[in-house]
Amino acid sequence: MKQSVTRFLILLGIPSMLFGQVIQQDSLALVSLYTNTNGPGWTNQANWNSASAVGTWFGVTISAGRVTSLDLSNNQLSGSLPDAIGHLTGLTSLQLYGNSLSGSLPDTLGNLTNLTSLGLENNQFSGAIPRKLGQLSILIELNLFNNQLTDSVPGSFQLLTNLQKLNLQNNRLADLPNLSNLSLLNELKVENNRLTFEDIESNVGGPNSVFTYSPQDSIGAYTDTTVNEAAQVVLAVTVGGANNRYQWKKNGVPITGAQQSTYAIDSVKLGDGGTYTCDVTNTVATSLTLRRRTIRITVTGTAPGTPGNLLAMAASPTQINLTWNASSGVKTRYRIFRSTDGTNFSQIDSVSNVTTSYSSSGLSSKTQYHYRIMAVGNFGNSGFSNSANATTPSFAPRIVRTIPDTSVQQGFARFYYRLLRSVFTDDDDATLNYSAQADSARVSAFVSNDSLYLSAEESFANQTKVIVTAADANSSVSDTFLLSINSDTQLPVISSITAPASVAENTAIDVSCQVTDNIGVQVAELFYSEGNGSFASVTMTAAGNQFSAQIPSSAATRNGVAYFIAATDTKSNVKRSDTASVTVTYTGSLSSADVTGAAYAGGMPNLRWRLLSVPADLDNKNISALFPGLSRDQWAAYNESGAEVSTIANGRGVWFKHKIGSDTMLVRIGSGRSNATSDFSITLRPGWNIIGNPYLFSIPVALDQALFYGP
């Protein structure tokens, strides 16, 4: 039997087994692994490279003459994996993690097509991941994390359709293909690599329930640059991704508005020096922030040029205006220097670098002043400009407070009007001479003891200009105002009327206003009504121009309150305000039997259509609330359009019928408020309108028969 088996193997060309256990290619591959990875230095090398059966070698599992599992994890392997590892084509599990293996992963790993688990993590492998690993079509778990692998994750990984776990974290990988087609992949870990958002976006939302991708290595290169003042500098970050968001920072602080992939400083200033970074986020890969490596900017420059053509011109006895030509180069400010002798200068101020003029104020009159300026820069100052001088003039009389236009009543007596020392002044000469003249000969304007006096003929009622002049020894100044002498036909002015918009029933109502008149107010009266047109009055109490009175609580009924104010001046001119109203709120119930003039005071007739309206603005406008105890199937209501309704609008009526078998069904009004008695409007619709009296009191109705008609 043994001979026949041997002949069968020879006929198939299969190598004979080493030590009667495994085929020769497997045993040779194991020996190559032992030799290349410093087998003598392994922690456990039991039976390796000996005459013992391969199945007894540490970490080796065999089945049917093939090595099916090799686990040398955490065993101090060093060196590189030999290409011969790819001869172990019967392997279903290869675990070499936790060693010191280095060098590239051999392409021959792609020959191990029976692998379901490959663990090479926690080593020192470098270089690219072999594309041929995509041939491991039944691979379930692949662990390559904690190595030094570079370049791209092969696109052939998209063929690993049985893969469930892929752990590539803590390497130097720069590209990741779209693995969302791997429907069984439930764990994907790629953090601490060199991936960007274009690698992450396509894998977010894939089948993997665990997908960790943050953090990643910084992007871009460290940059150290020197920039001249006023030069332009453009900072940039390049990173893949279709949904990126950018935020540039200076010295760790976000820069307002710097939210593009580039950040331009059009004219560099000294304060722009510092360290810049850019944080890049992504609206899809929200767990990751990529940071650009720092850019350090150092600003340098030179001193500004000397400003030229300084000119000085006196503007007033206390002010000299300066102008100059801007200096060249970058400057931060201009310093202003002044002297009274042309030799000894002192700095008096500094102005903005964009300013080429200055007003030197607070000077003494009739004095010569000398000026020069200097440009200040971040990297030194300019020389002094040319010297310029000007002499301040003497003061002229001037107006410090204009005389306002004035109105008086016809027949006024002569009166003192204005102390002119409060109108005019002269900073050089305290003595001024005053004069006054009116345009009209019927008005007298004269000055006595530095005061202005006015008088006019008793019958004169018109306007005239009055000119008042102040003069010193050298010059003069005049002020003109308009004097109006008016006949008294002016009515009092009633304004700022205040009253509550609404009060509770039986509550007193405070009303106040302001009344003014050109000659004086004699009396102000408050007229009020319960809404039925009959007004009572009360005299208002005066406090200056403010008047106040109170409508008694007895007037605050469900009829509502209307009021107006009448003011009389001392010439018996009377002014009445518009009529206003205060709505009155109430909570108690009221039946149709209590309403004067109610059409159905004794109750709504049974099984008859009747018009129904409510004289108030009810809180509850449901018709069912008007008939407590009446079920919904016992009544019906229709509007003017013939549509059935369940509510009643303020001021409108409905057709109503009930069927309780009695003509004593009273309408009961619940809580609400009176309608405004000063004004109530209803918008009429085309066609029929049913309008009810909105008030508890009767109102006359007059209709133009050319516009309104009915049955």
Describe this structure in words.
The chain has 711 residues and is mostly beta strands. Helix content is 4%, strand content 38%. The chain contains three helices and 56 strands. The strands form 14 sheets. It has an eight-stranded mixed beta sheet with strand order 3-4-6-8-10-12-13-14, with no helix packed on it. Strands 41, 43, 44, 47, 48, 49, 52 and 56 form an eight-stranded mixed beta sheet that branches. Strands 15, 17, 18, 20, 21 and 22 form a six-stranded mixed beta sheet that branches.
Number of strands: 56
Query: What gyration radius follows from the Cα positions, in whole Å?
Result: 52 Å
Major beta sheet, strand line-up: 3-4-6-8-10-12-13-14
N-to-C CA distance: 126 Å
Based on CA inertia axes, which overall geometry fits?
flat
Mean pLDDT: 89
Number of helical stretches of at least 4 residues: 3
Provide the β-strand percentage band. Answer: 35-45%
Q: pLDDT below 50 for ≥5 consecutive residues: which ranges?
A: 1-20
- Proportion of residues in helical segments: under 10%
Structural class: mainly beta
Oligomer: single chain
Sheet with most strands: 8 strands, mixed
Task: Walk me through the topology.
Blueprint: H1 2-12, E1 17-18, E2 22-23, H2 24-36, E3 60-63, E4 66-71, E5 78-80, E6 93-95, E7 100-103, E8 117-119, E9 124-128, E10 141-143, E11 148-150, E12 165-167, E13 187-189, H3 197-201, E14 210-212, E15 223-228, E16 233-236, E17 244-250, E18 253-254, E19 262-265, E20 274-282, E21 290-291, E22 295-300, E23 308-316, E24 319-325, E25 333-339, E26 346-352, E27 357-360, E28 368-377, E29 380-381, E30 388-391, E31 398-399, E32 406-409, E33 415-419, E34 424-425, E35 433-438, E36 443-448, E37 451-456, E38 463-471, E39 476-486, E40 493-498, E41 502-504, E42 509-516, E43 521-529, E44 535-539, E45 541-543, E46 546-551, E47 561-569, E48 574-576, E49 580-586, E50 590-591, E51 610-612, E52 617-618, E53 635-638, E54 654-658, E55 668-669, E56 672-673
